[in-house]
């Protein structure tokens, strides 16, 4: 029995260490690129094609469900894009069952009066949830490019100007912007969420891009080439993270995703713990479903480098960390008993001290994100330490909740998109 316990505990430690080493590699690539990032279009000497007849036509899709308090703000932000009015349209993909639809209809009429096409699309059911809504709207999308925004986002007026030029490169299938936070200072919970998300939108996304590894569309605040969506098989609703799923299918087809850390897209963070837990459950379960669906295709691909496969594997299996945390928590007491009662394993426990490296790398990972993200003034280490420890506490507290989500994803148990 003690051998089984040691095996499971060591397996969890090894996965965490492997993930930490992958993060260390991302830190290296992120810092390598930090002071010498260049715009893809300007580096190529190309002029942006965002005026007149040269501007590509863009369809802006807004998938919504019961967004009574924010939908008018979003529609107004999109209607204010500094882009030729005859070169973009708005699709409001409305699955709402409350008074949201009436607000959309009124706001759509107001925007149409300004000469901007707005299509208010209603479905009889929520089949496929967000992925289903996006798929339903795509055949009628006139744009060669498709921008997507969730209801809690407020894109800046120059969003299209700063993104469409990248599509002059014919292999670019997606351009993703960085998330910014409208209500970061609202509470400790929103501060911790911003702390965690900023690491993804700095070290992870930029690090993967610099290293030439797979990155992912984040579901919103990005723009797709319509041909890329179609070529990759379209939106699928068999996972709760349709954005990650389509990102991997597109990259396996040879398309490139480009991340713009310099372009921020403001949005609101969940302010209630239950809303945050629901979001985390969906993200972790969806990631597990995507691993089940796409991991073998990544490993079998003959066109990908070993480094890309390793990074993609840990990317897809990132939510497995929560299972590792639960396993380690459950086995911590038996491990202590084994350590004191079975002296023949003393050398193994001495060797296990190398796993302290995982904790050190975790601190460095979040410190790099925090320090480089302080765009106004110097980073305060005490402030960082406070947020880091609070982030760890919440992550540990949600580990069982998220581990259940991961297990459901691996086992194929389907649940609604909430």
Query: Which structural class do you get from the secondary structure elements?
Result: alpha/beta
Percent strand equals 5-15%
**Overall morphology:** elongated
Strand and helix order: HHEHEHEHEEHEHHEHHHHHHH
Biggest β-sheet strands, sense, barrel: 7 strands, mixed
Helix content bin: 40-55%
Count every helix, treating DSSP H or I runs of 4 or more residues as helices.
Answer: 15
Mean pLDDT: 92
Give the strand tally: 7
Low-confidence stretches: 38-46
Gyration radius over CA: 23 Å
Structural write-up:
This protein is an alpha/beta fold. The protein is built from 15 helices and seven strands. A seven-stranded mixed beta sheet has the order 3-2-1-4-6-5-7, sandwiched between helices. The radius of gyration is 23 Å and the shape is elongated. It starts with a helix and ends in a 7-residue tail after the last helix. Residues 38-46 have low confidence and may be disordered.
């Amino acid at each position: 029995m003690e051998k089984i316990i040691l095996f499971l505990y060591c397996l969890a430690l090894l996965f965490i260490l492997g993930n930490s080493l992958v993060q260390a590699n991302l830190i290296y690539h992120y810092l390598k690129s930090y002071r010498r990032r260049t715009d893809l279009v300007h580096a190529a000497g190309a002029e942006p094609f965002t005026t007149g007849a040269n501007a590509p036509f863009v369809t802006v899709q807004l998938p919504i469900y019961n967004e009574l308090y924010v939908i008018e703000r979003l529609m107004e932000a999109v209607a204010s894009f500094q882009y030729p009015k005859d070169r973009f349209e708005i699709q409001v993909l409305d699955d709402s069952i409350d008074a949201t639809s009436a607000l959309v209809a009124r706001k759509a009429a107001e925007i149409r009066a300004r000469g901007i096409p707005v299509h208010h699309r209603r479905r009889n059911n929520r089949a496929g949830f967000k992925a289903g809504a996006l798929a339903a709207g795509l055949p009628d999308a006139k744009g060669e490019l498709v921008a997507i925004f969730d209801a809690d986002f407020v894109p800046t007026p120059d969003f299209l100007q700063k993104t469409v030029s990248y599509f002059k490169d014919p292999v670019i299938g997606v351009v993703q912007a960085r998330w910014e936070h409208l209500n970061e200072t609202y509470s400790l919970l929103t501060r911790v969420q911003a702390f965690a998300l900023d690491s993804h939108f700095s070290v992870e996304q930029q690090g993967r891009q610099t290293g030439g590894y797979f990155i992912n569309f984040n579901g919103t605040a990005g723009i797709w080439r319509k041909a890329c969506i179609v070529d990759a098989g379209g939106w699928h609703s068999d996972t709760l993270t349709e954005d990650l799923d389509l990102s991997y299918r597109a990259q396996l087809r040879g398309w490139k995703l480009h991340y713009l850390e310099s372009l921020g897209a403001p949005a609101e963070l969940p302010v209630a713990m239950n809303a945050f837990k629901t979001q985390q459950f969906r993200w972790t379960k969806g990631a597990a479903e995507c691993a089940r669906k796409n991991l073998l295709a990544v490993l079998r691909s003959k066109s990908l480098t070993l480094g890309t496969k390793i990074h993609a594997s840990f990317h897809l299996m990132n939510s497995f960390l929560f299972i590792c945390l639960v396993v380690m928590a459950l086995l911590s007491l038996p491990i202590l008993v084994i350590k004191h009662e079975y002296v023949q394993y003393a050398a193994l426990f001495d060797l296990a001290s190398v796993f302290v490296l995982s904790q050190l790398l975790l601190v460095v990972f979040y410190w790099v994100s925090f320090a480089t993200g302080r765009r106004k003034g110097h980073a305060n280490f005490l402030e960082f330490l406070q947020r880091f420890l609070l982030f760890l506490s919440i992550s540990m507290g949600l580990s069982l909740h998220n581990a259940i989500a991961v297990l459901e994803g691996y086992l194929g148990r389907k649940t609604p998109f909430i």
